[in-house]
Amino acid sequence: MEDFMEGQRSFGTVADAINYKGCPAHKSKTGGWLPAALILGIEIIERLSTMGIAVNLVTYLGGTMHLPSSTSANIVTNFMGTSFFLCLLGGYLADALLGRYKTIAIFSVVQTLGTAMLSMTTKLHQLNPPQCEAHASNCQEANEFQMGILYFSLYLIALGTGGLKSSVSGFGTDQFDERDEKEKAQMAYFFSRFFFFISIGTLTAVTVLVYIQDGVSRSLAYGICSVSMFIAILIFVSGTKRYRYKESSGSPLVHILQVVFASIRKRTIDLPDDELLYENAIEGSRIQHTDQFRFLDKAAIVAKEDFENGSNAPNHWRLCSRTRVEEVKMMIKLLPIWATTIIFWTTYAQMITFSVEQATTMRRSMGKFKIPAGSLTAFFVLAILITLAVYDRLIMPFWKKWKGKPGFSSLQRIAIGLVLSTAGMAVAAIAEEKRLSVVKSEGRDTETLPLTVFILIPQFLLIGSAEAFTYTGQLDFFITQSPKSMKTMSTGLFLTTLSLGFFFSSALVSIVTKVTETHGGQGWLADKINYGRLDLFYWLLAVLGVINFGLYLICAMWYKPKEDLIPKGSVQMEKQIDDAESAS
């Protein structure tokens, strides 16, 4: 095998990649910086579109569609949750049917159509209810037809976003040969800036795009998103001949189901000694056997009926290798950390819903310029960029000198993010208490309170810093601690924490609204924010954050790192691969 790999390198081709014609990919003609940049460009535009819509959507739903506060918040969180949940669908299609290139191309077109439709939806008067004065009690809510068109537009965008986002980082990784030291270094450098560049896209969305929405025309802003994505698609397709393509090895989800079904089929058979379990993986890629989740080991028990028609190849729905079983065990072990990071994205959801709604009631003028409420999230993005810069330039060098390690571990970064997000909710609750005290003195129907919007900045900064640690920590954890053959699956698992965090926010808002409502009065999350007690809702999230952090610490202490499960002979090889891929 090593001789074959060496022969491929000397011949100038990449061993596991092909070009657009299906022939071995030549290094001088495919891959590298330029194709990777074309792929990154389409991700930047996706972030520009999605965040430009999400951060300011709540003001449109409340101000134009005349929906209650809690309903508006839930529409936004459900939209974002669905976008990330559909990454699982996109990942499955890329792995099992289409490949990453076609998945990106198809779903980017879907998102372009969605944003174009949303632009028309906000432009046509027939698709919006009659205008009325702010805070008026007789405003007519959008009817079912109007909301139906809006929902169709939003979820078309969500479908496009999910399919596109599932494959972009992976296809970018495909453009570098991890076995080549020079290209591996290029990949690490390129993808270490991946999060930085998409954060720039987000910053542009929450400043320039939100200003156009509020100050010029919302339909124009969404039209810009659609045209930008169309141009990005043309640029992306222009690199077709330069890309490197990886042939699909099948869906990891199917592999997991095969292990589960095979173990259930043999549930009544006693387990033999470990040496008698079936194994067909090559020596260097085998994973050390563990005693956790022993019932899954039954999938590797050999029986006569496992081999069809006298073939040496087993039916994988009846017999799985011991290494394949251990890969599934590794994925199961990720689940406790996965579950305890969901609450972070629930607190994050408040920054693009209720926090933006808070800003609409406060003084936002700087001279003659009035800051759009949605643009307050710019401080959120700035906090991410500053935190990443401080961590990269100050914390990592200091930590390496003190501890001999290049920065915090992935679990430590997640822990820091959870603490900061909980503190952010506590600070948000205190700021809302101050805002409500002004509401009490000025009157609940006051359109603009004599209170500066900048008292909301600390909560945006804290949650932004929290995301910088949590997002990078989660991505690093799920990629490096998963089996190599299931890295796409583990990335999808990571993205579902975002999805479920948004969905949990929607569920929590609905529950709190129902439980706290009184006869003849309104609860914590009233139809109009000045009539509610948003501060108590924020305190509830802070308490849930403290409880969740305690559970996270227990799960983190229980978790056994991947390096302890790999045979000593293959630790170095796996570590080299993981170091390159974790940068993505």
Summarize the SSE layout with pairings.
Elements: H1 2-11, E1 13-18, E2 24-26, H2 33-63, H3 69-85, H4 87-98, H5 100-123, H6 144-173, H7 181-192, H8 194-215, H9 218-238, H10 252-265, H11 322-340, H12 342-351, H13 354-360, E3 362-363, E4 365-366, E5 369-370, H14 377-403, H15 410-442, E6 449-452, H16 457-480, H17 487-516, H18 534-558, H19 568-582
Parallel strand pairs: 3-6
Antiparallel strand pairs: 1-2, 4-5
Helix pairs in contact: 2-3, 2-6, 2-8, 2-9, 2-13, 3-6, 3-17, 4-5, 4-6, 4-17, 5-6, 5-9, 7-19, 8-9, 8-14, 12-16, 12-17, 12-18, 14-16, 15-16, 15-18, 16-17, 16-19
Number of DSSP strands?
Answer: 6
Strand content: under 5%
Shape, principal axes of CA atoms = globular
Number of contiguous helices: 19
- Text of the CATH class of the largest domain: Mainly Alpha
Helix content: 55-70%
Mean pLDDT: 82
First-to-last CA distance: 27 Å
